Amino acid sequence: MKTASTLLGRPIDGLTLAERLDHAGRWIALELYSPETLPLREIAAEGASAGDCMRQLTTRGLDPAKYEFQMVRPPY
């Protein structure tokens, strides 16, 4: 499995098939869409659970309430 740092700042749709397979079953945080902010939908955190992602965001001074949490699905 690749380290989480290789995913941060990248769009989920930009992951390769190999990366999706490597990270399948892990959780990611994506900023919630808002017409005011128009987020780029880049991965802001990655962890074994949504709680792990929330802790990472909080550590970086970000508000987890402004993020959605998704499990990375295998590509097929």
Strands, total number: 3
- Main beta sheet strand tally, sense and closure: 3 strands, antiparallel
Classify the beta-strand content into a percent band: 15-25%
Low-confidence stretches: none
Into which percent range does the helicity of residues fall?
Answer: 10-25%
- The total of helices stands at 2
Gyration radius over CA: 12 Å
The class by helix and strand makeup works out as alpha+beta
Would you write up a description of this structure?
With 76 residues, this protein is of the alpha+beta class. The chain has one domain (4-71). The protein contains two helices and three strands. Strands 2-1-3 form a three-stranded antiparallel β-sheet. The two termini are 18 Å apart.
Keyword list:
76 residues; alpha+beta; three-stranded antiparallel β-sheet
